[in-house]
Amino acid sequence: MLIVCTHFGENTAAYRRLSYFAKYLRSRGLRVSCIGFLGISSSGIVKPSRGCYGLPFFISTRHIWGLILNAIFSLFVIVVILISRPRMVILSIPDASLVVATYLGCLLIGSKLIIDIRDPQEEIIAHKYKQGLSSLIAKIFRQINYSIYRRADVVTGVTRTLVTMLANATSKFIHLVPNGADLKIFVPINKGEARETLGLSQDSFLIAYVGGLVAYEQYDVLPILTAIKRAKESSDINVRLTAAGPISNENDRRIIEKFKDVVSYMGVLDTKGVLTLLSACDVGVIPRVGDPIYDYALPVKFYEYIAMGLPVIAITNRKSELAKIVEDNKLGLVCKPGDQLCLENAIMTLATDKSLLGELKRNVFAFRKNIDRSIGAERLYGLINKLLQT
Q: In terms of residue numbers, what domain contains 305?
């Protein structure tokens, strides 16, 4: 088997999902290799992880012209498939500019193709570019990829909303292979020891955030920073955001510096560092933007917060899959994007109401078994096993 993705930077959500799948499939007797690209982004160069074959440059962007360049770079995938001759290829989306090259490679040697979609890049790009030449390119890109999806042996999606979206767009049955967290790795350690390791106050109410800072397409931590600052000014609670992740540009860096009285920025952490940070905190925050195009998503940070026993403050549309799961299972509090008063009240409530916080924590631990990454791995293996027998 060959797993294809743009890059496997070891601190990325893609790496955690796909490396888990690779390990699981190897445990079931399959030979698994992976290829990635040397990713170029505004925050620097991301090398493929150890154990993955590295291909030439790939631009980490959703700009329409970047997609065209990446589609050209992705032709190297055909060469790798022709040389390695796998019986089956798993293509992980994003980046969807790999679709044509991967399909052609599989077609040339007759190997099976599974397309594993975490983000519907075609829909996001078509939504973003609605005028002129960019709109035409986005529509052609979408049409070509969806025609290949219809021809693929299996297409999977990570959430029920995404599965429905893709099924409606492609008229193809889409399998649900959910994301999750590795519950053998994401196990909380002693909170006091974790805070001591990171140099954090033992008395503060700490809100965790792991991801890009400040404004990163789907995410924007500025509202949470503003809400924490106002909550501290209007009450005597000692609350801070404890954050880790890349800062994409100097303007965002200046914003973080402006809020240094309410944020402890830990840089980009490896998995061990993330475990320590989450163990030190009381709740986790997911600051989604209000664009409904992202309502399909359950971010990896959601699974990792839950695995570590953290209730969630979710900034998301009420109709989103994230809001429904958080509210239906009483895993935290939900505020609509732009509702700063709700956000401030949520922070103050969780920081002061120990009874409510304790109840939410119990709900989180009861729900934890449902976000085990092995659930998705088992479903994927079942699909692969059926394909191998045909």
A: 191-371
